[in-house]
């Protein structure tokens, strides 16, 4: 049976990540970075595209149970067989230089024969490496990639069917560990990692990090799990946070809405910063802010909606025809053509993020305000243009209301910065005039008075879940009848199975794509926020509880959910979904008297 998206758990070392299925198979791993080519790509193809399964030889196809060790990204998977039980512990320890994947097998009861099947395929499952034995290792080499595999204690290993097999028996209390290490093929073998020392250190490091969490309200475990997931999706050398660990997991099974999310989006910046700061993670928030500053440096006209993990600007999109896609959902795409789009909302998100950073006491840098002034100078001449909008539609540019609202946010934050900081210099009168003009235009052209709701674009009858952010960013107060009307209309027209679509795909051409998609989880969290802000806290908490109930058995959320088939959709785990969960929990339970 083909695994479902929610069957996977995440492990990682804050530079890359792997997905481990309930069948004990690592089906996705890109080395050495999140956006590198995968050496295990079964997730988007089949076994021949690379995977590494460790499970009882004569046991069931799926584990009995699994869980992260509390406050960590260390995964325990338990198996039960007729002869005994065994645990496989998976982790990727913080790297010194080379990335390691560590798998520790421990006998829990009886006696269990365990089999390891390792099928390495570099370049997204397309290249079969040359394998050799050397100095107690199995070594795989192809082009620039080299992977070294060893076990402690050493167990019998043999090659068969173009993969590497191991088989051994463990009794209660016995342990066998595997370490898989990647490094450039032209370099000498990296230092060996002690697997049990790495396990102990990883547990201690993660638990120490989790102990810093400042949130102590209801649902603390799932909130902390979301924060750990955001930390795991962080590229530690730069502070950038990728949108997801995967590419091309479909928004519709069998469909073509398959995108590469292993990059850093500016759209997430304010919400990410707010979640980290509110939860007490100022160091991570400052690293994200600094990544943002480096990424957007340069001509404001060249501001992109996304960047690579180190701030790379060129992310060319192409397809991998040898991969059939998850559940046959082709094409599999690498890179993201949306990087070339004009999305005016990102200027508002950058301005809002830097405003939040300043008000939260993050360290200041002398060039931040000059950067903000340059952004405003560009935006003043560009804000009237149509754009592709928050959702990166491929159906042509429009006058998206959310984009204009975020233009207003940019002007508003610039004005407030000058009002609050007399030492700063800027065009206060000009920015106030721009702010008022944008506000007036949005209320005139983006509002349907007959239906009492803002619309997706000027002159459109369609709705958009991004309009739920209008009260959150301060464009209108929550008690404004237009806000309440918009919340009600969106819940009525975009609601599906108790959750929320981001916009309608029924017969519309806004995104230029065929097919459908699931309910969008972050939009459903935004609905909970909007219900809370408009005085309907009981309904907001009920929705939040339903959303939390969608998390898989180890607390992870993908991008979307399909109520009809009760399954996750889209890339996984999705940072935006977990950011939504954290921020909504903070809004609903950070102050029990609110609402």
From TrEMBL:
Cofactor: phosphate
Top-rank lineage group of the source organism: Bacteria
Residue ranges occupied by any GH15-like domain in the UniProt entry: 217-585
Pathway: Glycan degradation; trehalose degradation; D-glucose from alpha,alpha-trehalose: step 1/1
Reactions this protein catalyses: alpha,alpha-trehalose + H2O = alpha-D-glucose + beta-D-glucose
One annotated GO molecular function: alpha,alpha-trehalase activity
EC number(s) per entry: 3.2.1.28
Domain Trehalase-like N-terminal: 3-150
GO BP: trehalose catabolic process
Key words of the record: Carbohydrate metabolism, Glycosidase, Hydrolase
Primary enzyme class: hydrolase
Protein family per UniProt: Belongs to the glycosyl hydrolase 15 family.
The protein's name: Trehalase
Organism in which the protein naturally occurs: Streptomyces aquilus
Organism lineage: Bacteria, Bacillati, Actinomycetota, Actinomycetes, Kitasatosporales
């Amino acid at each position: 049976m083909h695994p479902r998206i929610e069957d996977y758990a995440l492990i990682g070392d804050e530079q890359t990540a792997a997905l481990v299925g309930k069948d004990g198979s690592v089906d996705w791993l890109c080395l050495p970075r999140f956006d590198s080519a995968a050496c295990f790509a079964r997730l988007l193809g089949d076994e021949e595209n690379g995977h590494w399964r460790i499970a009882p030889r004569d046991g069931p196809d799926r584990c009995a149970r699994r869980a992260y060790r509390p406050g960590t990204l260390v995964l325990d998977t338990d198996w039960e067989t007729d002869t005994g039980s065994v645990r496989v512990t998976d982790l990727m320890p913080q790297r010194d230089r080379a990335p390691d994947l560590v798998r520790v097998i421990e006998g829990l009861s009886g006696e269990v024969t365990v089999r390891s099947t390792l099928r390495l395929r570099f370049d997204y499952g397309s290249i079969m490496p040359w394998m050799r034995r050397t100095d107690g290792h199995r070594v795989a080499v192809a082009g620039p990639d080299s992977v070294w595999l060893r076990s402690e204690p050493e167990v019998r290993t043999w090659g068969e069917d173009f993969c590497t097999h191991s088989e051994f028996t463990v009794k209660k209390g016995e342990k066998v560990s595997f370490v898989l290490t990647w490094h450039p093929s032209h370099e000498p073998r990296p230092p060996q990692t002690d697997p049990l020392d790495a396990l102990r250190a990883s547990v201690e490091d993660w638990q120490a990090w989790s102990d810093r969490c400042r949130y102590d309200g209801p649902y603390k475990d799932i909130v902390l799990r979301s924060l750990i997931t955001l930390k795991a999706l962080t590229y530690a050398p730069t502070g950038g946070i990728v949108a997801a660990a995967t590419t091309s997991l479909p928004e519709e099974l069998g469909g073509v809405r398959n995108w590469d999310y292993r990059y850093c989006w500016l759209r997430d910046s304010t919400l990410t910063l707010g979640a980290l700061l509110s939860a007490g993670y100022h160091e991570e928030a400052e690293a994200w802010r600094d990544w943002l500053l480096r990424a957007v440096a340069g001509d404001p006209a060249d501001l992109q909606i996304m960047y690579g993990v180190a701030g790379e600007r060129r992310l060319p999109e192409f397809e991998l025809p040898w991969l059939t896609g998850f559940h046959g959902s082709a094409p599999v795409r690498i890179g993201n053509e949306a990087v070339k789009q004009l999305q005016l909302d990102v200027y508002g998100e950058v301005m809002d993020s830097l405003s939040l950073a300043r008000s939260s006491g993050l360290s200041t840098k002398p060039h931040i305000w000059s950067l903000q002034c340059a952004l405003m100078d560009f935006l003043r001449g560009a804000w009237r243009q149509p754009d592709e909008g928050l959702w990166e539609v491929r159906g042509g540019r429009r006058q998206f209301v959310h984009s204009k609202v975020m233009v207003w946010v940019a002007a508003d934050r610039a004005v407030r910065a000058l009002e609050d900081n007399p030492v700063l210099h800027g065009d206060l009168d000009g920015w106030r005039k721009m702010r008022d003009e944008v506000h007036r235009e949005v209320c005139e052209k983006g509002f349907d008075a007959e239906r009492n709701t803002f619309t997706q674009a000027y002159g459109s009858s369609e709705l958009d879940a991004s309009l739920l952010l209008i009260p959150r960013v301060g464009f209108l107060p929550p008690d404004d009848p237009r806000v309440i009307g918009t919340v009600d209309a969106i819940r009525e027209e975009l609601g599906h199975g108790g959750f929320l679509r981001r916009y309608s795909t029924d017969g519309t051409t806004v995104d230029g794509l065929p097919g459908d998609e699931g309910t969008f989880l972050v939009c459903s969290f935004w609905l909970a926020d909007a219900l809370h802000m408009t005085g309907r806290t009981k309904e907001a908490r009920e929705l939040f509880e339903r959303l939390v109930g969608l998390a898989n058995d180890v607390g992870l959320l993908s991008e979307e959910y399909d109520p009809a088939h009760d399954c996750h959709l889209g890339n996984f785990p999705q940072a935006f979904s977990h950011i939504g969960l954290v921020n909504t929990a903070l809004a609903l339970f950070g102050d029990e008297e609110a609402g």
